[in-house]
UniProtKB/TrEMBL annotation:
<keyword id="KW-1133">Transmembrane helix</keyword>
<feature type="transmembrane region" description="Helical">
    <location>
        <begin position="21"/>
        <end position="45"/>
    </location>
</feature>
<keyword id="KW-0812">Transmembrane</keyword>
<keyword id="KW-0813">Transport</keyword>
<dbReference type="Pfam" id="PF00528">
    <property type="entry name" value="BPD_transp_1"/>
</dbReference>
<protein>
    <submittedName>
        <fullName>Lactose transport system permease protein LacF</fullName>
    </submittedName>
</protein>
<dbReference type="InterPro" id="IPR000515">
    <property type="entry name" value="MetI-like"/>
</dbReference>
<feature type="transmembrane region" description="Helical">
    <location>
        <begin position="267"/>
        <end position="289"/>
    </location>
</feature>
<feature type="transmembrane region" description="Helical">
    <location>
        <begin position="219"/>
        <end position="241"/>
    </location>
</feature>
<feature type="transmembrane region" description="Helical">
    <location>
        <begin position="79"/>
        <end position="100"/>
    </location>
</feature>
<keyword id="KW-0472">Membrane</keyword>
<comment type="similarity">
    <text>Belongs to the binding-protein-dependent transport system permease family.</text>
</comment>
<dbReference type="GO" id="GO:0055085">
    <property type="term" value="P:transmembrane transport"/>
</dbReference>
<dbReference type="InterPro" id="IPR035906">
    <property type="entry name" value="MetI-like_sf"/>
</dbReference>
<dbReference type="GO" id="GO:0005886">
    <property type="term" value="C:plasma membrane"/>
</dbReference>
<feature type="domain" description="ABC transmembrane type-1">
    <location>
        <begin position="75"/>
        <end position="288"/>
    </location>
</feature>
<feature type="transmembrane region" description="Helical">
    <location>
        <begin position="112"/>
        <end position="133"/>
    </location>
</feature>
Length: 299
């Protein structure tokens, strides 16, 4: 069967297109797909990462999670971190975006200033904030003493205040990125709607409540979804600032997985914890997608 010129051209164009995505596909297959599949296999095995053979243990690793106090505390800390970080970051990003959604002179400087923490080195950010939160001579506690607080929090040195301190730093670091997302969405809202509202006597607050926030709901769904996934996968900031301490007060799921795998060399147990984390993130994502689909069907 002889191919026509049109069919040959189509095949050639397809091959050219596949050649562009092939390097990315190979990288994804080697560094993501295979390790993920191997994690599922490891989750039902007992293995210390050495030359010793793997031992099949079935669901024993998963049953151990239910009685592991460190895992349960890590899960609790992860949920608390997400509950504290997501709404406050969304609110801060939206508020800043609304304030900076103007064309006044020098506004680019302010936008850049708020975005800069997101691109700053995370190690440097953690080191600087640890210095600021220093309980005895840190600038934050010195300022609190000046305004009359005689016994300020010990922040990252306290089992009570360490997680709130991490939440504060997370909000500061990531709100700039989501501010840019909101700015892009704000600039897509028709100015005529605000002009019509002004003619009807609407104040700035009413414009925000009845025009801006409803029009930004799809963007807010996206921001909440991305932030939630990011919060459940948090590791680097906590590792730099507290390494899960003091005690287990800031130990989160990824930190627990890291310690189980690369400190205790329990790769099977660590993989079962990773599968649980994967399942949690998957469920949260599906719920959020369902909510977004339901919302768009009403619009």
């Amino acid at each position: 069967m002889q191919l026509t010129m049109k069919q040959k051209r189509k095949i050639k164009n397809n091959l050219v297109g596949y050649s562009f995505i092939l390097p990315n596909f190979i990288g994804y297959f080697i560094f993501i797909f295979i390790p993920v599949c191997f994690s599922f296999v490891l989750s039902v095995m007992e293995w210390d990462g050495s030359a010793s053979p793997m031992k099949f243990v079935g669901l024993e690793n998963f049953s151990r999670l239910l009685s592991d106090s460190t895992f349960l505390i890590s899960l609790k800390n992860t949920v608390l971190y997400a509950i504290g970080t997501v709404p406050l970051t969304v609110a801060a990003a939206l508020l800043i975006a609304v304030l900076l959604n103007s064309k006044i002179k020098g506004i680019v400087i302010f936008r850049t200033a708020f975005f800069f923490p997101y691109i700053a080195s995370l190690v440097a950010v953690g080191a600087v904030w640890n210095m600021l939160f220093q309980p005895d001579f840190g600038p934050i506690n010195e300022m609190l003493k000046v305004i009359g607080l005689t016994n300020p929090p010990r922040w990252v040195a306290s089992t009570v205040w360490a997680l709130p301190a991490i939440i504060i730093v997370s909000i500061w670091k990531y709100m700039g990125y989501y501010m840019i997302v909101y700015l892009a969405a704000l600039q897509g809202i028709s100015k005529e709607m605000y002009e019509a509202a002004s003619l009807d006597g609407a104040t700035g607050w009413k414009k925000l409540r009845y025009i801006t926030i409803p029009m930004l709901k799809p963007t807010t769904f996206f921001v909440v979804m991305m932030l939630t996934i990011q919060c459940f996968k948090v590791f680097d900031l906590i590792y730099v600032m507290t390494q899960g301490g003091p005690g287990r007060s800031t130990n989160v799921l990824v930190n627990h997985i890291y310690n189980a795998a690369f400190v205790e060399f329990k790769f099977g147990y660590a993989s079962s914890s990773a599968i649980i984390l994967f399942a949690i993130v998957l469920v949260v994502t599906l719920v959020q997608f369902r909510g977004e689909k339901k919302f768009t069907s009403y619009m």
